[in-house]
Amino acid sequence: MLLRSILVLTCGALPSAPAFAGVVTGRVMLGTTPVAGANLNFDPQSGGGGGVTELNDGTDAQGFFTTTVTPNNVYEMTIVPPPGSNALVKVVPNVTIGLVTNNLGTIQLDAGVLLSGRCVNTAGAGVAGVNIDVLDAQGNDVLLAGDTSDALGFFSLAVPSGAIEVRFDTTPVIGGLLAPRALNLDLSANHALGNVALQPGFVLSAVTRRQSNNLAVSGVDIDVVDVATDALLYTPGDKSNASGLVDVVVPAGTYDVRFEAPFALHLVGQELDNRVVGASTSLGTLLLQAGVVLSGTVAGFDGTLHGGVDVDVRNSSTGIGVYLGHDNTSTSGLYQVIVPTGTFDVTFSPPVAIPYGAQVLPGVVIAANKVQNGSLPSCPFHTTVGSGIAGSGGIVPQISSLGGAPRVGNSAYAVEVTQARGFAKAIVIYSLQTTPNPLPAPCAPFAPMNRRVFQLGGAPGVAGAGSGTYAFPFANDPLTAGHLFRAWIFVRDSAAPNGLSRTNELRATLCL
Asked: At residue 118, what are phi and psi to the nearest 5 degrees?
């Protein structure tokens, strides 16, 4: 009988190994202040969070914790501050739970600011269940505590200070369809948004297929741009599924709708302009054309590679643009886009913040994957010529430019005067015309010249304290490329000859 029992134990299933518990200790602080009531969550570092048991998983009044975790493993510990705290959620990686108590010592949380508000519909009623996401200045997701609006629509959460994007995802909301919304904020202190109004939403949908064989295309990204504001809408769930269907929720409006397939599929993007949405709207079936890769680098005339250069491709015969999607150069000056085959005009347009003009390459033949590098011409912000006339304190007012390069279509270009008499009236003399030959003498009128009066800031009457700007937005007219912009500024100043001090002359040649 004993032998039979031994055989049964030997041949039967062995009992499972026990799940051992381990202890982790430490203290959570925000600067010199203990964080009481913080919650600790443990997830296996290798992924998969099932079967984890936590006991005493919160901090006491002095911020201390002694937490038992089962089973022994290497964990990622997430510290979630209590409601109302301005401390940010923190993740502590590689926390070992084993036979020996692991003392993590003092863990410092980062301080943020409190962002609060209430999600409401157009009737002013609170909206429950809105999921709130925050992106930091680098576009990274911020871990949040309390990231869902409550039963009355209220929310309060700790976010990083500085520039952030706050996204209100209405997908989980039960009831009438509401459009998602995003806000860009720059915070330096606690901020109450008040009511965040969510507009009625309408489904905007399309089906994406290959032109060559009518097969569905999954992963196609849809971007919706408001025609009135040129703002990109926040549209969660904006990629096509396995059937090629993509649908997003948007408020009523007129939109440009853009479609971009995953790059590896080598399908040409599409843009549908001025689509009016006032009800649920289907854009039908889009047939995406097979394309080839156009790639290369873009450098300045001096050989320096530049990021943020916009690449534009237009059919040489029709002038119709090809929608390229993500078509700016990387920080290392690289670009790659999908285009159809044919003959195209390719334009490289740098940001106005750098002193380069655009390069236009007409008649580029593209028959297969092609490398096309770009070289940007010089476009200096300005030069100055001549000398000024001193005013109060023997100080000569100084002229310079703001807003970047003098490019066609640069609406931010302006001239600035500094070191003038404080709070004085200023008179700017300027012209924009075909470059005369020979060039006129500095500060010498050359018809047609224009005259405008504007007010300087600074302490009234104080020598050198006056400053101000005058905007000169350049029209988006390619025919003005190569024209000469001239400007100089007089300042009313009783200490100057004839009661007027003067800057020297600023000159800039307009570039594409």
From this structure: -140, 125
Q: How far apart are CA 185 and CA 200, in angstroms?
A: 23
Q: What is the rounded distance in angstroms from the CA atom of residue 226 to the CA atom of residue 237? A: 18
Torsion angle defined by CA atoms of residues 317, 324, 272 and 178, in that order, rounded to the nearest 10 degrees: -170
Dist CA 130 CA 175 (whole Å):
12
pLDDT number for residue 351: 95
Beta bridge partners of 401: 415
Q: What sign does the CA torsion over 5, 8, 9, 10 have?
A: positive
CA 155 to chain centre: 24
Domains and CATH numbers, the chain: 22-108 (2.60.40.10), 113-197 (2.60.40.10), 202-288 (2.60.40.1120), 292-376 (2.60.40.1120), 383-509 (2.60.40.10)
Write down the pTM of the prediction. Answer: 0.81
Among residues 209, 132, 214, which one has the least CA distance to residue 170?
132
pLDDT for position 437: 86
CA atoms within 13 A on the CB side of 491: 39
Q: How far apart are CA 334 and CA 489, in angstroms?
A: 42
Residue for token digits 């005339």?
Answer: 301
Structure tokens at 283: 């854009």
Cα within 13 Å of Cα(132), Cβ side? 28
Rounded Cα–Cα distance for residues 505 and 429 (Å): 9
User: pLDDT for 343-360, tens place per residue?
Assistant: 999 999 999 999 999 999
